[in-house]
């Protein structure tokens, strides 16, 4: 009887639908975007039901999500949407500028057409929390908690006096150290802590404007780093008590795959852009293009919930609308451009954001000039098997703004910037970077097997994106035209280890330059002459990304776009001869030479034995040079020895910033490191 009862209850659909769930909440935490500067992202909320105080019964709480600065405005009643807009104009915009994003709940002020039109006119994004997830606006809710505690303490004996204390509550809140940033809201916003008493004024003496600007920039960088750390910690703690959201299978609705979107860049002619997505099984999908030119594909079937069409070639330009249609349903992408798409994948130096480079404000001020350079960012989500589509998109295709580019890969953005200057047509940039990870973690089992490498234990979603892109002309510039790289930069100035020099050499397959037979259709940017000794992000992460991006753009023009008059390679020796007490090196191009004592080294040998990493290498000073030649002294070899090999820049930190001895005649391209046997002169 007991077993029959349990079996009946377990099979009851009404019980299954109606009983309370005792499982942890589904869906992992997705933190809000971390701002780059004060007052670019704000949060709003109202405190209501207060006892009358000087005619006021409501408080509007305004929170800067970057610095945690709050403004408390006492109001006689709940304002309308138009009145709320005026309050922000009078108390926020005139002092801090127009924000990029405004977070609020779904109060009638914020869901009205007036509010949406107001924010749209300002160019500000409206971010509304859901009714069952007030944590979305958690910063304003938390500020309200602190406000309530302070009001209860101060106005305990006379509830009608709370509005007269509001200014000092605000001052106290903004003066206290915030747990997330590790500093007070005043300091995070202004760059210094305002004094409460005149006797503290001397502590704020600023010796120079430059010092003040450096201090403010450091405060902002420290604030954002602390916020990112706090967000990561909070997410880790929250996710311990949550479970991942269920993976939903295609529901039969017509839509494009995840990495297609409005404002995107599709591959231009002569290639044919490929579009794919999901739809109802058994249906047929037609894709049409409307814009400067119009076209329509033949219907293609939806097989196992997936459809795919290949467009006819389209010249660079736009904008276009791309519409997929099936029986009774359509899906449209607007603002689509045709151009070239580059995939930017890498580790820390590719991940390095634009807001961290030297003179970042100058670069960000130029962003409006590059509306046809469109960024897209992949979310770093792992999966145990190779996927057909991305798990998540971090940044959909978008028209760039300074705030978006500030958090985008600097090297990727600057490269696209330089390529657009030359090509004069749209450039799409796909960023997918993961710091401090080996390439095996980025590659699928299939790719590793093809390369003869060990199987990866965890595959990234980016691997599937590379696979999908590689078989579609959409990624033509990445897959078919060439691969780019950056020769390892410097790390430790006093290091005597051969670790970094060996890695640089292996990056070119032990040839010294690319393209070469083992690495065809490849180009690199030499970065060993760009050390950044004072980089707050460690010396291995230099802030000179403009130089690296420009050098990469030269390689792209020569290798990917076949521009024959573009030199992208630094000087490389094509002959190394030993003659008595000298070594004579002949380069493959005209050189610009600066005298040096120890950047060149020679291996001395009495019997011309093979030199290797364990051999004794001694400095070889430059004694003379010509248009394409450099002469080195072998005086540090003993009288019984001769130079058997020569190497150049074979150090972790071979020279200071742009101060290596060998450059192209223009002074732009440094000679790459090399190691070569020394051939005797034949008389």
Task: Please give a structural write-up.
It is built from 18 helices and 32 strands. Helix content is 27%, strand content 24%. It is of the alpha+beta class and 683 residues long. Mean pLDDT is 83; it is low at 456-483. The radius of gyration is 31 Å and the shape is globular. The termini are far apart. The protein folds into three domains: 41-195, Ribonuclease H-like superfamily/Ribonuclease H (Nucleotidyltransferase, domain 5), CATH 3.30.420; 255-479, Immunoglobulin-like; 573-680. Strands 7, 9, 10, 11, 13, 14, 15, 17 and 18 form a nine-stranded mixed β-sheet that branches.
List keywords for this structure.
683 residues; alpha+beta; Nucleotidyltransferase, domain 5; Immunoglobulin-like; 3 domains; nine-stranded mixed sheet; five-stranded mixed sheet; 18 helices; 32 strands; 27% helix; globular
